[in-house]
Amino acid sequence: GVNGARELRNLDKEAEITLISKDDKIYSRCILHHYMEGIRDIKKLEFIEDDFINKNKINWIKGTEVTGIDVNEKKVIVSTGEEFQFDKLLIATGANTFFPPILNLKTAKNAIGFRNFDDCEKIMEMSKTRNNIVVMGAGLVGIDVISGLTHTGKNIALVEMKDHMLSIQLDKKAALAYEQGFEKKGVKQYYEKGIKELIVNEEGEITEILLTSGEKIPCDLLIVAAGVRSNVSFLEGSGIETDKFRLLINTFGQTNCEDIYGAGDVTGRNPIWPTAVKEGIIAANNMAGVKSEMTDFFASKSTMNFLGIPTMSLGINEPVDETYIVNIESDNKGNYKKIIH
């Protein structure tokens, strides 16, 4: 959303631009683990210049949630009851933590997602008085969490249904470097195992986790990082097309409603930062009358640097069939390169 607003201002110096956000801060979710580690303060999480809002003449309605859209009247309705008229609208409401249908998960008082700054603060506060922290999911979000918590000295366990961490981005050999690194940090890892049940006490707090393997793990704080669901519930009945999990857009960023566009995690296309930024810029161009199309969703890269191991992945991490050629280069210094073509 912010990158879309920036692009709109670059394209149109006179347009009235209103930014409505549930957050009252503009920050990068990708580096929240640095805040947890104490490496960055809130100021260093920002990805905009200090005078961004004023310089770009943006009317920022912060700490306010959109509750509905009137397509016919071209109005956005927010939680305060206020209504905002629009000529063009960009929906970039992101996604929420997905809580799988596991017994006691939705009601447990000490189970929390990791999606925004508020979640980050809650985890930091709760972890002060908890000793056994379990992270569900070993994707990018799950690894963010354990990276942010290893310095605490708490007992940390990672549970993942796939056979290695970062399974979307990395193959098993590349992932092994991170797995061994986190093992040295004291993180206990459980792969090819799911959570079957949460065992709770009379206060409704998790005390143990029962895995599908039959093992039990002590737990007094569960952090859920097992995927997301696009935040589209407020669009119900609006006439703007969604499916069960996402806002539907075309390659111009346009929804089924001519003047309404979408970008980022809400579209459910490729939930990584570069794709979200690109979608926002494409949508902004078309909103401003500059025809622009995204055709290379496949080629969105992930870059990461956990434990001082810089990594980049692009496309698939394993060949789909025998028609692909795989070239691998590695050395005894820990460098690893794999090209699938």
TrEMBL record:
Organism, scientific name: Clostridium beijerinckii
Gene3D superfamilies in the cross-refs: FAD/NAD(P)-binding domain
SUPFAM superfamilies: FAD/NAD(P)-binding domain
Official protein name in the record: FAD-dependent oxidoreductase
GO molecular function, one term: oxidoreductase activity
Domain of life: Bacteria
Cofactors named for this entry: FAD
Domain FAD/NAD(P)-binding residues, every copy: 1-280
InterPro entries: FAD-bd_OxRdtase, FAD/NAD-bd_sf, FAD/NAD-binding_dom
